[in-house]
Design goal:
Blueprint lengths: L1 E5 L3 H12 L4 E4 L7 H5 L3 E2 L3 H6 L1 E6 L4 H9 L13 E4 L5 H13 L3 E4 L2 E2 L2 H5 L3 E6 L2 H11 L3 E8 L3 H29 L4 H8 L9 H10 L8 H17 L5 H15 L10 H17 L1
Parallel strand pairs: 1-2, 1-4, 2-3, 4-5, 5-6, 8-9
Antiparallel strand pairs: 7-8
Length: about 300
């Protein structure tokens, strides 16, 4: 029986390729079929619908951009959930609301399907090198049954708790990621305005104790203003929106999260949504120039 994989995007394509490289046969589905070419060339089978994936597999991975897409492929008119055999596994690696993950877990249980939420920490480079960290919410026995597959794609599996808890931790991760990137960009713009060159700022700040380690992988993007997407800015904004919802539901004030979310939203309105989230630096740069010019008029 093949392993099903739905969502062959930036991350999903690399994750599926790592499963394939470990000898697993895949049946795949993606709305844009051209993105499946590399996997098909190495033996993957393209399914005609999410339900068709379920007819050919008893383990399905999903890696999709937002909860609406997950719900459509799972529960839509051609969804896979009703088509899976009992005691099959659905492992959702998408970043979704914890409450949504719990809802999907209940829907899966009603169909005698074992649900695991397993969002990942890491982006394109980590996916390529099998260095992702899986943040898992699942019944421990269910995780034990599938952990070897996760280790085909990542270096670490963290069992956080029951379904929904993997995404709870992922929101904490991305809250820190989004705020730190926006803060770094703001600091860079201030430093440049004070007369420090961009090169000096990047050389001194990146790798220093005050900057997150992941910035080492982003330094070249910032220096060259080349923002090929590893983690698109629009999905960072989406994740921060989910953080804000989680804060509201749990009565936790999140002023930094909400302010940062709106900054990324403004960047999307400036046409940067499909670029890497580090493009928030260019947004701050253009905004600061606009402010400076307005002071001169």
């Amino acid at each position: 029986m093949k392993i099903g994989f739905i969502g062959i995007g930036i991350m999903g394509g690399l994750m599926a390729a790592n499963l394939q490289a470990q000898g697993h046969e895949l049946v795949i589905y993606n709305r844009t079929k051209s993105k499946t070419d590399n996997l098909v060339a190495k033996g993957a089978v393209i399914a005609s619908s999410p339900a068709d994936v379920a007819h050919q597999s008893n383990i399905i991975f999903t890696m999709l951009p937002h909860p609406e897409a997950v719900e459509t492929v799972a529960l839509g008119t051609e969804g896979f959930l009703n088509a899976l055999n009992g005691n099959s596994f659905w492992i959702d690696c998408s970043t979704v609301n914890p409450s949504f993950a719990q809802k999907m877990a209940k829907s899966a249980a009603q169909n005698q399907v074992n649900y695991i939420d397993a969002p990942v920490a890491g982006s394109k480079n980590q996916a390529e090198q099998k260095e992702l960290v899986f943040l898992v919410g699942a019944n421990k026995a269910h995780l034990n049954s599938c952990e070897s597959l996760l280790k085909c794609m990542g270096k670490k599996v963290v069992h956080v708790g029951e379904p929904g808890m993997g995404n709870a931790l992922k929101l904490v991760f991305n809250l820190l990621l989004g705020i730190s990137m926006a803060g770094f960009a703001e600091a860079m713009i201030l430093g440049e305005a004070l007369g420090i060159s961009q090169n000096m700022l990047l050389d001194i700040l990146v790798g220093s104790p005050v900057v997150s380690p992941y910035m080492k992988d982003k330094k070249d993007k910032l220096a060259k203003s080349h923002y090929d997407p590893e983690f698109p800015l629009q999905w960072m904004q989406k994740d921060l929106q989910m953080v804000a919802i989680a804060g509201y539901k749990n009565q936790v004030p999140l002023p930094l999260a909400n302010a940062t979310k709106e900054i990324y939203q403004q960047a999307i309105q400036q046409g940067l949504g499909q670029q890497d989230f580090t493009a928030i630096y260019d947004f701050w740069r253009s905004t600061s120039k606009d402010w400076a010019n307005s002071d001169k008029t």
